[in-house]
Amino acid sequence: MSHFESIASQLAMDRKGHTLPRALYVSEEAFQFDVEVMLKSVWLYACTGAHVKKPGDYFIFEVANNSIIIVRGRDMEVRAFWNSCRHRGAKICLEQKGSSPRLMCPYHQWTYGLDGKLLAARSMADDFAKADHGLHPVALENIGGLIFICMSDNPPPIDRVKADISEQIAVYDVEKLKVVVQDDYIEDANWKLVMENNRECYHCDVGHPELISVLGTYGFGKGLPEDGDADIVDDSSYDALVAAKREEWKALGIDRDLIEFPDGWWHRVARLALANGAVTQSIDGKLACQKLIGPFKEPETSSLSVWTQPNSWHHFCCDHVVTFSLTPVSADKTLLRTSWLVHEDAVEGVDYDPDHITALWRATNVQDGHFSMINHQGINNDGYVPGPYAVEEKLVEDFKDFYVAAARSALKELR
Fold first, then answer.
1. What CA–CA distance (Å, rounded) separates 407 from 413?
2. Which residues of 179-195 are buried (b: 16+ CB within 10 A; e: fewer)?
3. For the chain, which ranges sit under pLDDT 50?
4. Peptide bond into 310 cis (omega under 30)
5. Can you tell me the distance from the alpha carbon of 384 to that of 53, in angstroms, rounded to the nearest whole number?
């Protein structure tokens, strides 16, 4: 049986309402399939436009051995290229982020413009055509300031995602924000388990006391008025709170219906009321930045949350934005990247304190890292068998279903 036939047989064992077979979480074969095939066939969130704010700013997004340069050109367009010189293949950008007027290979100094065109190559033959040796592009879409890339030569459609997300986050004007903190945190678990852990709050009451004090647990698999009869918690007081808040949201022009992975697409967008009078996602619920963003002139007690399959989630508050991406590092290690953004004119020490703005999600990330680790360790046990999802873990199953469908589609393309 070939490597990919083994993956196909594991996918065939998937059961509705249950977790994946063991090998798809913990085996080296599944990791290689994910990074070499499946994740190259889908759109991945890489960074925000604020990570490459000025012409020449670049940001490196990596998935296992694949390294991609995301760079803003002199025309202010954001583009992506493989981080590999067209001469003898050396890595061009060695730092994770930076700024440069040109992209120069450190090996033999082949030099490229910010648009990927080859500008200089020493001592080449007279018939050498620089125009034929520009950097190889990678598909990129700028969705309201969220940058997505696809490593396939034939990327899947993205128009519905682009329309839905751009329309709702446009008011936050991400391009006029700046990144003030970026944390790169390695979790000791398979990337799919890190994603599954994010997609539910079944563990939040015990696992995240700081987080639920400002976010509550509604809207993360339970409790939204739109859930109707499927609502796991019949809480009329929360529904009434949302109804009252919607009048405020309408006045601000930010009231929208829940978008929840529509018609087989891979995005979810929800505006959620914060808990206990919190005005933002901070450790104490108080403003994390005094300079508000978007349409907000006064603190506002909600946040807009965006989830995309298979590797990101984002929260937009009245004073700051926090974004998350994850990428596999190995079968049992995952890079979780968290970035905090504030108004571009905000001043550290005056408008915001980096320790305060990051405290809530830093604590939550560590807690989630522990849960994902023990989940991976338990699945790696010979006694593991796929278990049933709770009703409020429906978003976990949405992710699993996306993974299974994308994996099967990627395998079919190989045949």
1. 10
2. bbbbeeeebbbbbbbbb
3. 1, 231
4. yes
5. 47
